[in-house]
Each structure stands twice: as C-alpha cells, then as structure tokens.
Description:
The chain is mainly α and 317 residues long. It has one domain (2-296). The protein has helices spanning 2-18, 24-30, 34-42, 48-79, 81-109, 115-135, 149-166, 173-180, 183-199, 202-236, 238-250, 252-263, 271-316. The relative contact order is 0.15.
Amino acid sequence: MNFLLDFIKGTFVGVANVIPGVSGGTMAVSFGIYDKLLNALSNIFKDFKNSIKVLLPIGLGMGFGVVGFTFIIGWLLQNQPFITSMAFTGLILGGIPTLFKSFKKGLSDDAHKSVILNIFLFVAFAALAIFLVFCNADSESGVLLNADLKTIIIVFFIGIIAAATMIIPGVSGSLVLMILGYYFGILTSVKDFVSALKNFDLEVLFDRFLILFPFGIGCLVGVFVLSKLIQWLFNHFCTATYSAIFGLVITAPVSIFIKVGAEYSFSGTGVLDIILGIVFLCACGAIPIMMDKLEDKKDVDTDNTETVNNYTDSSEK
C-alpha cells in the first residue's frame, strides 16, 4: 500500500516537473515526501537498501508522470499557447509568496547576511535569465534533432542543471530548461522516443536515446552530487541563495512569453483568449498559495500532535 501511495505522489511530482513555473520540490513538500526523498538521495551510498526502497516507487511515479504529461502539455501549447502561457505565469506568481516566506525565515537563521550581496545576486541572476532568453529567443524546433557529440555533451550538462534546480522547493526545473533554450527540444525528444517505441521505429528510437540517455545521466549526477551542494548553500548562505532564485523567478513570465511565442505563434489570440487567459492566470496563481496554506496547516497539526504526545508522556511519568 505504501508503495502505491508513494508511486501516486511521485506521479504528481513528475507532472509538476514538466510544467514551467511549477516546482517539483514544492509538490514533494506538499505531499510530505520531500524530506525522505532528499535523505534517501543524500544517503544512498551509506544506506543503499533503504534508500532504494524509498526512491523506487517515487522514481517510477515521477517517470510515469513526466512521460504521460509531456503529451498533454505539448497539445496545450500547440492549441492554446496564450492561455497556457498565462496559466504558467499564474503558477509562477502564485509561488512567489512561498519563496518570500522562506527568504524571511532565512533572514532570522542565516549567519552570513549581506544586503549588498543579496541585491547583487538578485540583479545578476535576473539579468542573466533575460540575457539567456534573448540569446535563445528563436524557435527551438530542431535544436536537438542532430544527436552529435557537441549536443550530447551540452544535454548532459543541461540535465545536471535541470535536476539540481528541480529539487529546490519553489524553483521550476522546466522553467530553467526554458530559459536555457532546451525545454521544447527535450519535450519533443520524449514524445518522439515514446512514439518510436510504440511504433517500433528503431532508427528514431536510437536517435532520441542518444539525446535522452545523456540528459538522464546528467539529471542523476545533478540530483546525487549537487543536492549536497544545494543543502550546503541553504545551510550557510540561505538568503543569498534565495536572492539568486528570486532573480530567476521574477523574470520567468518574460521568459515564458518570449519562448512560447517563438515556438507557437500568438497571432491568433482573440478577446475570448485574453479573458480566459486572465481567468486561468488567477486560478493557477491560487494553486501554489493554497498548497502552501495546506502545508502550514499540516505543520501546525503535526506540532499540536507532538505537544499532546509530550504532555501525555509527562503525565504518565
């Protein structure tokens, strides 16, 4: 039963990792599997057997969610690019209060606080994100079609960066892929691989494997190696790290509209699309806020339960 529950939770985390603006880390926190997931990743070599027991159902669920939702999100972007972009923007804006709350908590806990450093990192990462988007403002169609050595090496390092950001609550790995200019290429590669597997097209299957395999290896390296670095940064430079994250997140709506507009034209957008876009922006913006409130309620209930248990133990003694 626990295996099935973790599989289902992993599926939702996988779906979240496909959507630009949605944090897979935040989804894992909301479902109560983030801590055990991070501990299993950090201690996989020390406690391999128990770590695999934790990672297997969650990992299988994540894979299922990623592959399944890749086709859905591809259809949404192709048929409703403006409304889908507005929904992504709502998810990003709705996640800002959660990030800010973590930033404020870091201000009280962080021993290395520097206003100048925080401002510098915020501006630097915001400028970097905008620069990368405009450098890759053209359509990504075909960017990963040629599985040459150069592309394979690049995709490997892209996987490291994407995986490292995916495990940070409040940060979207897909959004980082979009900023770097590889989101649609990876998305198309996954769809082509699954379609080739279904049709038993060995030529396409092998070609897409040469892209997805190094990307997957890069993701594993990013998760296992950089997860420790990220933990260290949050433990020692919490506010500085969140300042850099804020720089990326605050420019994300610009990134989304530029990248989606380059890949799928907004020329057919009408008044009804704009109205529906605003509705979806507000509705999707409420989702991260509601998830954060549910997580706060869960924490309060846990604290109350622990208080009651401690009181009961004291009374028995």
